[in-house]
Design a protein that fits this description.
Strand content: 15-25%
Radius of gyration: 19 Å
Strand order of the largest sheet: 3-5-6-9
Helix content: 25-40%
Number of helices: 7
Order of helices and strands: EHHEEEHEEHHHEEHE
Number of strands: 9
Number of domains: 2
Shape: elongated
């Protein structure tokens, strides 16, 4: 059996998305809990991949779904395309999450006469690691550097954005930003005990910018 690669993962996501769009599932009928729908979809996609490829599944300890590939999977409804993400450090808002994202965006409908639920996969998007930073944070920092800003300017901006950093962390991060400006990210990351990732901009920009690839 072939070893799973990022390229094969993308191909598998495309094929699975088409198959799931055509599928009607009795166990999903009447289900409105997005977490339950996401769990169904994720487990089914992993089982599909296991029939074709060898790979190590992620665990809560490893943190992401495909640790060998550095990819995490997110499944979200088009009604509110967002998901949660473990908070590690404020640096993730600036330099990205540290891994790529495979995002499935679905629209769920129930078919009463069949008593089935259907998940139409509207968007399947692969976001490279370097594009997983917060859009407003990265764009603001890049403007500061382009305008010959220094560490004081960056620190002030970090505090204005309410990034969860103390003075020492802010100083260290500011020095890094001045030395190595971040790439422009395309997520919206809300501050919380868990990051809240929002995907509207990713959906809009998929296929238009480098590092945000539209698979479906």
């Amino acid at each position: 059996m072939r070893k799973l690669t990022v390229k094969l993962l993308k191909t598998g996501a495309q094929m699975f998305g088409k198959a799931e769009t055509a599928h009607h599932e009795h166990s999903l009928y009447g289900v409105t809990d997005g977490k339950a729908v996401g769990t169904y979809f994720e487990h089914k996609f992993r089982r599909y991949l296991h029939t074709k490829y060898e790979f190590v599944e992620g665990s809560s300890a490893k943190g992401i779904d495909f640790p060998e590939l550095g990819v995490d999977m997110k499944v979200t409804s088009i009604k509110q395309p967002q998901s949660s993400c473990p908070f590690k450090t404020a640096r993730q808002k600036v330099y990205g999450l540290g891994y790529s994202l495979l995002v499935f965006v679905y629209e769920k409908t129930d078919i009463a006469r069949k008593r089935t639920g259907n998940l139409k996969v509207l968007h399947t998007i692969f976001v490279d690691t370097i594009r997983t930073g917060d859009f407003q944070t990265t764009s603001g920092l890049r403007r500061i550097i382009e305008n010959s800003g220094n560490t004081d300017d960056v620190i002030a901006f970090l505090h204005e954005r309410s990034l969860p950093v103390d003075d020492i962390q802010a100083q260290s991060l500011a020095e890094e930003v001045v030395a190595t400006p971040p790439e422009l990210g395309y997520l919206t990351i809300s501050n919380a005990l868990q990051w809240r990732l929002q995907y509207s901009r990713v959906i809009e920009q998929a296929g238009k910018v480098e590092g945000v690839q539209r698979i479906v």
